[in-house]
Amino acid sequence: MNRLLIVAAACLTTSSWCSAAEPTLEWNQWAGSGTRNNVPVADNTPTDWDVGEFDFRTGEWDSSSARNIRWAAQLGSQTYGNVVVAGGKAFVGTNNSGGWLARYPAEVDLGCLLCFDIRDGRFLWQHSSEKLKTGRVHDWPLQGICCAPLVEGKRLWFVTSRGEVRCLDPEGFRDGENDGPYQDEEHTEENEADVVWVFDMMRELGVSQHNMCACSVTSVGDILLVNTSNGLDESHINLPAPNAPSFIALDKETGKLLWTDKSPGSNILHGQWSSPSYAVLGGQPQAIFGGGDGWVYSFDPKGDGQGGSKLLWKFDANPKDSKWVLGGRGTRNNIIATPVIYDELVYVAVGQDPEHGEGVGHLWCIDPTKRGDVSPELAFNSKNPDEPIPHKRIQAVVPDEGDFARPNPNSAALWHYSTVDSNDDGEIDFEEEMHRSCGTVAIKDDILYIADFSGLFHCLDAKSGERHWVYDMFAAAWGSPLIVDDKVYIGDEEGEVAIFRHSADPNVAMKDDGGEMVPYYGAIDMKNSVYSTPIIADGVLYISNKTHLFAIENKGD
C-alpha cells in the first residue's frame, strides 16, 4: 500500500518560511495556552538526532552514540503526561518505576509529577500520589500521572490520579520554605513537592472517576477550570455518581469551589478525560469542555453567580443515529481530545479509550458565537414531531421507537470531516476515513493537522475542511502534532517521530524516497513508544517516550 494518499484536486501553495514573531521561551501548560494550539515560535529546530542507547534493566543512559541531545532524564515505565517548561524547569507526569525518592522505591506504584532542571536534566523534586485502595476502577495500576500541569510564576496546579486538584510551589522545598499548611517535617526534604492546597473531588463532590483522573487544567485570571473525570464503574455499565459534577471552577489561589456543572449527567458513556480550553470568542469569554457524553459544551467561566454553571452553547459531536456499544464495538464516541481554538473557531475530534481499538471518527469545526443547542441535527419522535426529545445515552435516535432527526436551523457546524470518497469508486477505503482520535489538532496558516488512532496523519484546510493529504504512519498515534519553524512533528506508538515540512502541498510536506512518499525530514527512532506530544521552549525540543524525557537541540559541529 502506498503510504501517501493524495486527495487534493490541486496542490496549494506553501506558507511563508519565516516568522517575525518572538521566540517562545516557556510552554507553561498543555499546548501552551488556553487555546490549546500547539504552535510555538522557534528557529533552526532540530530534525536530526539520535537518542543513544539504554540499559532497559537499570534505565541507565549510554550517551556515547547520542547526537544533538542536550540531556536525557529517566522517567517511569509508562509515561503519558505531556511535558511543560517554565521557570527554568521541566515538569512531566509518569509512574514511579524510576524510583527517585528513597522512601518510595521503584516497586512502589505511584502517580508521579517530576521536576527537572532544563539546563542539564538534573532531578529536582517529585510529587507522589499513592494509589487509591479501590484499584483499577479509580486509579489504574502503573499509569502514573497522565496530565500536564499549569505553571504560573510561583504556583503550579495539576490533577492527581487520585481525583485531587493540587496547588504546588514549583521550587519544591529547594527554596527552604514551606508554602502550604503541610508541616510534616519528615517529608520536607528538598527533593519533595511543596503542597500549597488540595481539593479532593472524590471527597468534596462525590466524583467517581473511571480508571484514572486526568485533566490538564487551564485558567482564566484567578479561575481554574477542571474536568473531574466522573465516569462509570468497573462494570462499564453503571454510573455510580450521575449527579456528581463533570466540570468545575476553583479559585486558583485558595482552592475554593466557585461553580460546578453536571451536564453530561447520566449520559456519560465511559470516562471523561478531555481537558478544558479557554478564549474570548465573539466578545464573550468561553470555557470549552469536551464531555464524556460526546457533547462539546461552552460556559461562561464566571458561572451563574450562585455556584452553578452558565451554559452558552452545546454541540452533539456524534451523528444522531450512532450507537454506543460496550468495548468500542459501536459508532458513538466520547471526547478525549482537547478542543482547540483557532481564529475564533473551535475544533474537536471524537474518540474512545485506546483499549477499545479502531473505529469511525469525526472532526468538527464549530462556530462558537451561536447559543443554545447548536448540534448539526435535532432529535424528534413521531408522537410529537415538532418538539425535540431529550438526549439518550446509548443512541440519540432509535428509528424502531419512532425517533428521527432533522437538520438544526441553529447548527454551529461549519464543516465536518469523517469519510471522503476521494477516488470516486463508491467505497470508503481505510485511507479515506477519519478514525477515532485521542489527539488534538494543531493549526497554522489555515492548515490543520491531526493524527487518528489508526495511524493516519491528516492534513486539512482549517476553514473548509477540505483534505489536502493523508500519510499512513503504520502505527497508532496517541499524541498530537507540534508545528514550529515550518516543521510538523508527530510521534507514534512504535517510537518514531515523523517530521514533515509544514505545507498543504504533499510534494512539499514529503519527499519521494525511491517511489514512496515519506516525511520530508524523515522519521526518527526514539527507542520506545511515544505517547506524548512534542513541545518547544527557548529553541529546545522536548520529547518523552515511555521511559525517558529528552531535551533535543542543534549543537552544530
Automatic annotation (TrEMBL):
<feature type="domain" description="Pyrrolo-quinoline quinone repeat">
    <location>
        <begin position="437"/>
        <end position="498"/>
    </location>
</feature>
<dbReference type="InterPro" id="IPR018391">
    <property type="entry name" value="PQQ_b-propeller_rpt"/>
</dbReference>
<dbReference type="InterPro" id="IPR011047">
    <property type="entry name" value="Quinoprotein_ADH-like_sf"/>
</dbReference>
<dbReference type="InterPro" id="IPR015943">
    <property type="entry name" value="WD40/YVTN_repeat-like_dom_sf"/>
</dbReference>
<feature type="signal peptide">
    <location>
        <begin position="1"/>
        <end position="20"/>
    </location>
</feature>
<dbReference type="InterPro" id="IPR002372">
    <property type="entry name" value="PQQ_rpt_dom"/>
</dbReference>
<protein>
    <submittedName>
        <fullName>Outer membrane biogenesis protein BamB</fullName>
    </submittedName>
</protein>
<dbReference type="Pfam" id="PF13360">
    <property type="entry name" value="PQQ_2"/>
</dbReference>
<keyword id="KW-0732">Signal</keyword>
